[in-house]
Amino acid sequence: MAKTQTFKTEVSQMLNLMIHSLYSNKDIFLRELIANAADAIDKAHFASLTDPAQAREWRIDIIPDKKANTIVIKDNGIGMNEAEVIENIGTIAKSGTKAFLENLEKNGVSEAEKPELIGQFGVGFYSAFMVAEKVELTSRKSGSDDPAVRWSSDGQGSYTIDTADKSEPGTEIVLTLRDGMDQYLETWKISEIVHRYSDFIAYPIHMPSPKFNEDKTETIEDRVLNSQKAIWLRKPSEITEDEHKSFFSHLSNWGADYLSVIPIAAEGVNEFRALIYIPEQAQFNLMMPDLQKKGLQLYVRRVFITDECQELVPDYLRFLRGVVNSDDLPLNVSREILQENPILGRIQKAIIGKVLGELKKMQENEPEKYVRFFKEFGRILKEGMHTDFTNQEKIRALAMYESMNNEPGKLISLTEYVQAMPPEQTAIYYLTGEKRAAMEASPVLEFYRSKGYDVLFMTDPIDEWVMQSMTQFLKKDFKSVAKGDFEASEADKKELDRKIAEADKKYAKLVEFLKQALDKDISQIRFSGRLTDSPCCLVTEGHALSPHMERLFKAMNREVPVQKRILELNVSHPILDALNAKCENGENGLEKYARTLLDQALLAEGSPIPDPANFAKTVSELLLTSLK
Question: Which residues, 6+ apart, have CB-to-CB distance to 74 below 8 Å?
């Protein structure tokens, strides 16, 4: 005899939310029911290992019926008896959804947040009521003499339960669809959902599908919708190159090939499998975060959860493509629960360690291949030097740059730079800028070139930002050649100090004049041993913005505070003698020479000059004078 029972309060609350307002992507109902079917088959398959009588050809069937307005999902898995149906479907006390509902009521949810609460993560069997006005479940327990049981409900507060006439073990769910849900009766729509969410379910998912013959007649054939090829669960040695290419193409969707593949099989407290690819080429929108999906694809027990799980990898590894499959995570979790789940944190830590380790091996064993990688993704990877303090030193070792003592285009690592340093060199010298050609002409390099020291050329826009947190590598300090006080070696310091002291006395009047003439632009004028050929250069104090960073900010329409810099003069340049003589003679019009000296320093470092027309006029006058 059929019995009618009332849903517990929390079930009614959830069904009401789900049916009327909460769920944004109704396709998920099919994913959830297929996942439940696969779980049921897993249990029956396990039982058959000790009871061969329960073994059978495992399968899941999806049967749409347009005439009856129903869709059937059935499996030949473990099935349930009456007590199990009441326990598993009549209550949600064990599912965690009760706590979810309590939190929802307590905190309130905006319309914008609603899709994420269940959204693409689902809540199992009850998701059927999003598309169905009536759900009927018939189940028979495998390996048991208990009678089959039928459960049915319209989701309005109660359900009926009765015995049923079903001889085969397993579960069959019949959904009578609501108005407007006709698309879920279309075979193309069902195929699309299965391919997206359930393609790697271990058991074949069958569906009767129309086939048009050559004589234009239509027949129905039994079609398997899923590939079942979860290649990340196989041994790496068993996966062919063609399979890797095909799978990477499925993941990437932009036609490029992959450069390297990293399989991960983690065992222990949290077991997971991953198959991660380093693409050969960067996606066009890699530098446009708003247009790019970030993160690896997350599967739970082969069921697709999301292709944008940002919690699996940090932002500086966003170029990676691949899948992570965990059996420890629950299927019915919200976005918030995923973000807070400690399992994901441990998975991320393992992935970071494995990827950085593989990149290091590539750098050491396949240098040409690594340079190809770094030219594509180096500027992204370098973000980690500023954001990931735990792995900062590992990422620094992976960074590569051009340098003054190497030919254009050749990249060297920081380790190679340090190994090539002469014994008297104590710091890692670098210069930031837009292009190598302009940086090579900078007067601030003259001393380092004369001593044979190398200087790293950092041309990525991100380098300036990264260097704010780069203090040392292999116990060597980083020093910008365009910032701070110039530090000569101990061998040169005594002689240099003597020359500067002499220059301070000899050119005191000239320095005072230049300070007055350039007061609006210059914070200080001093003599330095930094220069060997040029008469002057501009350097930045302490943590002030470099001219390169100023140009970047201005290009982004950012306001840049006016900051004065230091004008350094070459103690040995003959132009100082000429200017000093004119200054001591009290000649008029020397301001234009002071301005030209500053403009020359600006041009030498690649910065724009404030009045190009006036500079050109002054240079023409000087040329005319010298040619007479």
Answer: 37, 60, 61, 63, 170, 171, 172, 173
